[in-house]
């Protein structure tokens, strides 16, 4: 017997129609919200553009910051100098990853026998997180070479890079430590019950899980590191990177367009890294939801 012919049965599609109506209403409300958001954004941005373009000194501002001639003259050298920023980043990143992990492990050790190591790691992290990175780069870049210690490099760019490593390793160590502490104690207890030593548990159980959980925050730190390689311009001297090269052209051309060229170089690197970080966060969120379901 069909559902229509069954006695006491309601309309055959009454139960299925309600979810469809709710879903249609939800999609309509969502589309309306998106439309309002887009329209308001266009109105606000349009208002800002109108005010800027009709300001009193817009022609002078355009010539000072958006000069085609200055951009064409300076950008090739700025782009060439930006290769040093990329090299600084590629050298500093693996060192920071390893050294910060060591610091995080030292801070996570328990027991009175490890108190001196835990104290030294804590002092290091507090010290280099508390001092602005620019000051660390400045102090090392100009301070260490003046000591004249035999065997030590005297290049300001080298000590500026060391300053970045020291500063960022303190921040990354805290990211690692948060990941280590997020691993449930039952994981450690199970590993010890299977006969693994403390170090084997840390190496094979805790650290792999911790690192996997903190990859998105680490990416955020490395986006900031890529930008902060410009701080080496304060001490780089004879080895200019993108920002210092743009300053040189700005001083010679009396125009700020070269600095915008340097900013464009950084955007080409940092925006894809930011989108990749967002993708990692979204993938991590979907995996958590799938695990809960």
Task: Quickly count the helices.
Answer: 11
Proportion of residues in β-strands: under 5%
Alpha-carbon distance between the termini? 37 Å
Q: Ranges with pLDDT <50 over ≥5 residues? A: none
What string, H for helix and E for strand, traces the elements in order?
HHHHHHHHHHH
CATH architecture of the largest domain: Orthogonal Bundle
Radius of gyration (Å): 28 Å
What would you note in describing this structure?
- The protein has two domains: about 20-55; about 70-290, MetI-like (MetI-like fold), CATH 1.10.3720.
- Helix content is about 80%, strand content about 0%.
- The chain has helices at about 15-55, 60-65, 70-110, 115-130, 135-145, 155-180, 185-195, 200-215, 215-230, 240-255, 255-290.
- Helix 3 (about 70-110) crosses helix 6 (about 155-180), helix 3 crosses helix 11 (about 255-290) and helix 7 (about 185-195) runs antiparallel to helix 8.
- It is flat, with a radius of gyration of 28 Å.
- The protein starts with 13 loop residues before the first helix and ends with a helix.
Notable traits:
11 helices; single chain; 293 residues; MetI-like fold; mainly alpha; 80% helix
Summarize this entry quickly.
With 293 residues, the chain is mainly α.
